[in-house]
DNA sequence: ATGTCAATGCACACTGGTGTGCAGTGTGAT
DNA sequence: ATCACACTGCACACCAGTGTGCATTGACAT
């Protein structure tokens, strides 16, 4: 099956390394240039343009990866067919590392490439809103905000906590989950009970 | 008292107009240039540099204004000597329009001028954290997060709702306040009661 | 009437990033 | 042995924004 095995593989390795490193570099500084990414990937700027014709292409590819991963997680936790609030807890637990990895996308959402990112992220937003709506329909979640807004704000809070770099402590996924559950209207006692059921 | 009355006044008018317009323009697009601001203010780019030697100077002046307004509001609501949760409600009500006005600063917090803005906004963050801490000490607020983080995340949620531009609806300060109270650990019933006490 | 000075309208130099072109080099494929 | 081609290294053009210099205009102050 691998026709041009070694040749093609090492090329894909370079490409993947650029993508991985780009997530890192842009995560630290969303305004980093193609040069910074290239250097960090141990490659020359020109080479990056060999794989991605433009900066937008790079960002788009990154976003597509993120959408794929997030959609997978959402599909899996939804497959468990549990209550919406339990599903939310499972979702946050599974999405936690992904959120940190792709933190740059949220930062870039407002900006030059916001339009492209937003449209690609649309489907994920939909799925998230669906989950919250399901919770509202079964009265697990409150209705003080429409599902679309509530899902965004709740996930935004998790994201904010996940990427907050406090001087001494490191972000606490448990506290973040509780916070998001609270704002979804889940009582604190139930929130803690849900968390204690997690493996 | 006005020595060079007309002269100096019209100069201050121009300066103030630039500042006001800058808030507007940068609020819509944080990456707008000095030229865009100048044009929107009905003035030439060179004139803006006459009042503010650099872009950073402009941003700093804007930030100083914001800090002054926010500090005033915080001082006033704290003077009422009510419970921390009631104070929070009053604070959100009073800060709501200000939040929208200075929305650009939050957007610019991550970016080139983040350092300068952050240091100027520091005192406000302190006051906010103090309020939340007070609430935690009197058991009005939950302790799932340290006061510093919780205050930031709660205010961040309010900000997110205040600046969310939904297709048809406009942001609802009441829903935003409830959301923030929930994540602070205030039970929904109490949150609604607090809001109904507001004028 | 005369001077002052904010605002104007150019000019310019500088910076920092993007994206392209092309000749050269080394390593796998044939 | 030779071809293909990913990567290099340097060149360039281009753009958009920043900040400065300076001569000019016009309203206000004296």
UniProtKB/TrEMBL annotation, chains A, B:
Coiled coil: none annotated. It comes from Actinoplanes palleronii. The keyword Transcription regulation applies. This is HTH tetR-type domain-containing protein. Gene3D superfamilies: Tetracycline Repressor, domain 2. The keyword Hydrolase does not apply. Residues 12-70 form the HTH tetR-type domain. It holds the Pfam family TetR_N. Keywords: DNA-binding, Transcription, Transcription regulation. The lineage of its organism: Bacteria, Bacillati, Actinomycetota, Actinomycetes, Micromonosporales. PANTHER family: HTH-TYPE TRANSCRIPTIONAL REGULATOR BETI, HTH-TYPE TRANSCRIPTIONAL REGULATOR RUTR. Residues 33-52 bind DNA.
């Amino acid at each position: 099956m691998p026709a041009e095995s070694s040749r093609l593989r090492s090329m894909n390795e370079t490409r993947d390394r650029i993508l991985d490193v780009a997530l890192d570099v842009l995560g630290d500084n969303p305004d980093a240039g193609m040069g910074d990414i290239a250097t960090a990937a141990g490659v020359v700027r020109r080479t990056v343009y060999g794989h991605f014709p433009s900066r937008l292409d790079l960002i788009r590819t990154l976003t597509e990866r993120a959408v794929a991963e997030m959609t997978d997680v959402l599909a899996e936790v939804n497959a468990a067919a549990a209550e919406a609030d339990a599903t939310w807890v499972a979702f946050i637990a599974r999405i936690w590392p992904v959120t940190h990895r792709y933190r740059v996308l949220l930062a870039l959402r407002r900006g030059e490439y916001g339009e492209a990112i937003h449209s690609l992220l649309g489907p994920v937003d939909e799925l998230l809103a669906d989950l919250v709506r399901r919770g509202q329909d079964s009265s697990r979640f409150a209705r003080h905000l429409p599902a679309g807004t509530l899902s965004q704000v709740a996930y935004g809070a998790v994201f904010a906590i996940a990427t907050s770099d406090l001087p001494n402590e490191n972000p606490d996924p448990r506290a973040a989950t509780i916070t998001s559950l609270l704002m979804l209207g889940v009582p604190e006692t139930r929130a803690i009970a849900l968390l204690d059921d997690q493996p």
